[in-house]
Specification:
By secondary structure, the chain is α/β, with parallel strands linked by helices. It has helices spanning about 5-15, 20-35, 110-125, 170-180, 195-205, 250-260, 270, 275-290, 300-305, 310-320, 325-360, 375-380, 385-395, 410-425, and strands at about 50, 60-70, 70-80, 85-95, 135-140, 145, 150-155, 185-190, 210-215, 220-225, 235-240, 370-375, 400-405. The protein contains 14 helices and 13 strands. Bound molecules: alpha-D-glucopyranose.
Length: about 425
C-alpha cells in the first residue's frame, strides 16, 4: 500500500475553492434563485413555497411535533409560551435504521415507515387516545405544497429509497397511519421542511432572522420571500439549495455522484453535507493508496481525525491496517479531511451570500441573524470559522452584520409554531 504523493497534491489543488470560485458561485446562486422564482427551466433551484410566513413570537399553546429527518425520528410535545419562549415537555427519539430493522432502504415499505412514525408520535402523547392534539410535521425533503397541510414528496434525498412515497401527500400518509394505530385524536395540521421549521423557531426569538439553513446529513436553505409570486401571499421559500448544480465538480465528485442513489441530483449537497463528505474522503483515500476496495470513513470519523492526531492514527490503523501508520502520511490524510471540510464551508457560505444578495436587492445587506442547525455546523472542526471567513471574502464588510444563531431542536419548535399558526390565527 503506497502513498501516491503526486496524486495527493493534485487532489489538494482540486479541492481548493478559491475566493473567485465562491464569489462566482454566490452570484450564480442568486441568479438561480431569481430565475427559480420565475419558474425558469434554467434554474437548478426548486424554490418551493411553504405557505407560511414568519411568526410573531406571540403564538401560544401545546402542540405535538414530529420531526422526520432521514436518520432518526423525533416526536415531542412543545409548549409555546407566547412571549418568544417555549418548553419541550416530552421527547421520544428513535433511529430509523438499526441492526434489527431498516425502515429507509428499498425493501422497506411506506406503510411500515409511517406506522413507525405514528407509534413514535403516540409515545410522545403518552398513549393518550382521547385528548385532541394538533400536530406539526417537519419532513426534511423537497415537497410540492398546495397549502400548509398538504405536501407531496418530489424525490427522496440522502440515499433514502423507500418505495411508494414519492409523489404522495406525506401528511395524508401520516394521518392514515395515525388512524391505523388508533390515534385519530392526533390531527396533523401543518407540514413543513426542516429549514422552514428552523427559520420559524429562530424568528420566534430573533425577529430579524430571514434565512434558515440545515447543515447536517443533508444540506438546504430557506428564506423569507416577500414577493414569491404574483397574487400569492408572502411566504418562506424552501430553495432546496442542495440541488444547486452550477458548481464545477472535481472528477471525484462526479464519480461519487454516479455511484449514488440519484445520479445528477443534489449536486451541491454531495459536495458539502455529512451524508457525502465521508464518502468523498473514503474514495480519495482509496485513490491515493491505490486500494482495490474502498475503505469506509464517516463524517464523524473525519471530525475525530481532524481533532486529534493520535485518534487519527488509531482510526486509520483500524480501517487501513499498518500501511497508514507513518506519521507524515497520517498528517497528510488529516490535511485531506480538512480540505474537504473547508471546501464544504466555503460553498455553504456562497449559498448564504447569494440569498442575502437577493434579499437585499439593490440595497446593502442588512445586519441579521441567520438560523443554522445541524451536526456538521455544530461539531465538525473548521466549519464555523471558514463559513465566516468565506462570507467576508465574498461580501466584504457587509458580512460583519451577520450573526449565525444555532437553534437547538429547531425542527420540533418550528413544527409546533406551524401547528399554532395553522390552528390559532
Ligand atoms: C435534503 C432535502 C431537504 C432537507 C435537507 C436537510 O437536501 O432534500 O429538503 O431540507 O436535506 O435535511
Amino acid at each position: 500500500m503506497a502513498f501516491n504523493e503526486n496524486l495527493y497534491k493534485e487532489i489538494m489543488e482540486e479541492l481548493e475553492a478559491s475566493q473567485e470560485f465562491i464569489t462566482e458561485a454566490a452570484g450564480a446562486f442568486r441568479w438561480d434563485l431569481e430565475q427559480g422564482l420565475k419558474k425558469s427551466e434554467y434554474s437548478s433551484l426548486a424554490m418551493l413555497p411553504s405557505f407560511i410566513g414568519l411568526p410573531e413570537g406571540k403564538e401560544k399553546g401545546e402542540f405535538l411535533a414530529l420531526d422526520f429527518g432521514g436518520s432518526n425520528v423525533r416526536a415531542s410535545v412543545v409548549r409555546l409560551l407566547g412571549n418568544s419562549n417555549f418548553e419541550v415537555l416530552n421527547w421520544v427519539e428513535k433511529p430509523l435504521v438499526t441492526a434489527e430493522y431498516n425502515l429507509l432502504n428499498s425493501s422497506a415499505t411506506s406503510e411500515a415507515l409511517f406506522d413507525f412514525l405514528a407509534e413514535t408520535v403516540g409515545e410522545a402523547a403518552e398513549g393518550n387516545k382521547d385528548r385532541e392534539y394538533y400536530l406539526g410535521h417537519t419532513f426534511s425533503f423537497g415537497t410540492e405544497q398546495e397549502d400548509i397541510n398538504t405536501a407531496r414528496l418530489i424525490k427522496w434525498a440522502k440515499e433514502i429509497a423507500v418505495p411508494g412515497v414519492e409523489g404522495e401527500d406525506v401528511n395524508a400518509l401520516l394521518r392514515e397511519a395515525l388512524v391505523r394505530k388508533g390515534y385519530a385524536n392526533i390531527k396533523p395540521v401543518a407540514i413543513l421542511n426542516d429549514t422552514v421549521a428552523l427559520l420559524l423557531a429562530a424568528a420566534y426569538t430573533y425577529p430579524d432572522t430571514r434565512i434558515g439553513c440545515i447543515y447536517a446529513t443533508g444540506y438546504n436553505t430557506c428564506y423569507m420571500e416577500v414577493m414569491p409570486d404574483v397574487g400569492r401571499p408572502a411566504c418562506i421559500i424552501n430553495t432546496e439549495s442542495g440541488g444547486f448544480s452550477k458548481l464545477m465538480p472535481s472528477k471525484w465528485d462526479l464519480e461519487l455522484d454516479r455511484a449514488s442513489e440519484q445520479p445528477g441530483r443534489q449536486r451541491l449537497e454531495k459536495m458539502v453535507s455529512g451524508k457525502y463528505i465521508g464518502e468523498l474522503f473514503s474514495r480519495l483515500i482509496k485513490e491515493v493508496f491505490g486500494l482495490t476496495e474502498k475503505p469506509s470513513f464517516s463524517a464523524v470519523d473525519m471530525s475525530a481525525i481532524m481533532e486529534d492526531s493520535v485518534r487519527a492514527g488509531e482510526i486509520f490503523g483500524t480501517v487501513l491496517g499498518d500501511g497508514a501508520s507513518d506519521s507524515e502520511v497520517i498528517e497528510k490524510l488529516r490535511q485531506l479531511a480538512k480540505a474537504i471540510a473547508i471546501r464544504s464551508a466555503r460553498i455553504v457560505a456562497a449559498s448564504w451570500a447569494g440569498t442575502l444578495w437577493h434579499l437585499a436587492g439593490s440595497s446593502k445587506v442588512e445586519p441579521q441573524h441567520i438560523a443554522v442547525d445541524g451536526s456538521l455546523y455544530q461539531h465538525m472542526p473548521y466549519i464555523q470559522e471558514n463559513v465566516r471567513r468565506a462570507l467576508y471574502e465574498i461580501m466584504d464588510e457587509e458580512a460583519g452584520g451577520l450573526e449565525p444563531v444555532l437553534v437547538k431542536d429547531g425542527s420540533s419548535i418550528g413544527a409546533a409554531i406551524a401547528a399554532a399558526v395553522a390552528t390559532c390565527r
